[in-house]
Automatic annotation (TrEMBL):
Its main location: cytoplasm. It comes from Devosia salina. The reaction proceeds by a bi uni uni bi ping pong mechanism. The lineage of its organism: Bacteria, Pseudomonadati, Pseudomonadota, Alphaproteobacteria, Hyphomicrobiales. Pfam families: Pantoate_ligase. This is Pantothenate synthetase. The gene is panC. It catalyses: (R)-pantoate + beta-alanine + ATP = (R)-pantothenate + AMP + diphosphate + H(+). PANTHER family: CYTIDYLATE KINASE/PANTOATE-BETA-ALANINE LIGASE, PANTOATE--BETA-ALANINE LIGASE.
Length: 284
């Protein structure tokens, strides 16, 4: 049975009872859990004695015209999934508990958060780093697991942990996909039938770029153009960015070298924004 901790006081009381030497694995989420999330829970279980998840739809990481109000919140179904996965505890706070009246402190990473989604969603990663640091302070995990689908988020959190000397090991879980290649996302439920049929082209564009790189193309802009041109085949897909970046700093590169590269794409299908990525190069 998964223990439900509905406020910070309950979480602190639970954490105080965890015996010394017990390794805690933590998976923070916004809920609407799918098999991608479940793979993160399983990964945490492999490296920890106790696994705790959180579900919190964080208002600080949503822009004024984004989908905060309609973000899916199937909490009872989520709890059932966590119980089946053997997750030990769930932190399920309210917005008022996480951000008490008068709260005015924000946490901001200023380099890795700048390009890609950071350029398209001003303030988004400031909301992410603020809530994640708060969660780390509350849970005090030994390891926290994040999904590679949100590659920039992973990089931002890794940089925050390094820069602020946060004693948490960050692990990345691989992207989990549908049979046709579409990366699992809580927002996939928004897709119309027509948009869902077009969506796998996003992953196919990444695969095409990986194949071009394997065949000898190392120019970053030419690789990105291959990806963009593939998505231009569908009038349902509106590309926000398709870019080839340094895999750690996410800085611009001209050539894919020994460090490899992160190929990252964000696109709208109707009102739904999807992201995906693929690492190419020595570790791709």
């Amino acid at each position: 049975m998964t223990l439900i901790l509905r406020d910070k006081a309950s979480l602190r009381a639970w954490r105080a009872k965890v015996t010394e030497g017990t390794r805690i694995g933590f998976v923070p989420t916004m809920g609407a859990l799918h098999e991608g999330h479940m793979s993160l829970m399983a990964q945490a279980r492999e490296t920890a004695d106790v696994v705790i998840a959180s579900i919190f739809v964080n208002p600080l990481q949503f822009g004024p015209n984004e989908d905060l109000s309609r973000y899916p919140r199937p909490i009872e179904a989520d709890i059932e999934k966590l119980e089946r996965a053997g997750v030990d505890a769930l932190f399920l706070p309210t917005v008022e508990d996480m951000y008490p009246t008068g709260a005015s402190t924000l946490v901001e990473e200023t380099l890795v958060s700048g390009p890609l989604c950071g350029a398209m969603r001003p303030g988004h990663f400031r909301g992410v780093t603020t809530v994640v640091l708060k969660l780390f302070n509350l849970v005090q995990p030994h390891v926290a697991v994040f999904g590679q689908k949100d590659a920039q988020q992973c990089a931002v959190i890794e940089r925050m942990v390094r820069d602020l000397d946060v004693p948490v090991e960050i692990a990345r879980g691989p992207i989990v996909r549908e049979a046709d290649g579409l990366a699992l996302s809580s927002r996939n439920v928004y897709l119309s039938a027509e948009d869902r049929a077009a969506a796998p082209l996003i992953h196919k564009s990444l695969q095409a770029v990986a194949a071009a790189h394997a065949a000898g193309e190392h120019d970053a802009e030419r690789l990105a153009e291959i990806g963009r041109s593939m998505l231009a085949q569908s009038d349902r897909i509106k590309v926000q960015y398709w870019d080839v970046r340094d895999p750690e700093s996410l800085g611009a590169i001209t050539t894919v070298g020994a460090r490899g590269a992160l190929c990252a794409v964000a696109a709208h299908l109707g009102a739904t924004r999807l992201i995906d990525n693929l690492v190419i190069g020595p570790e791709g």
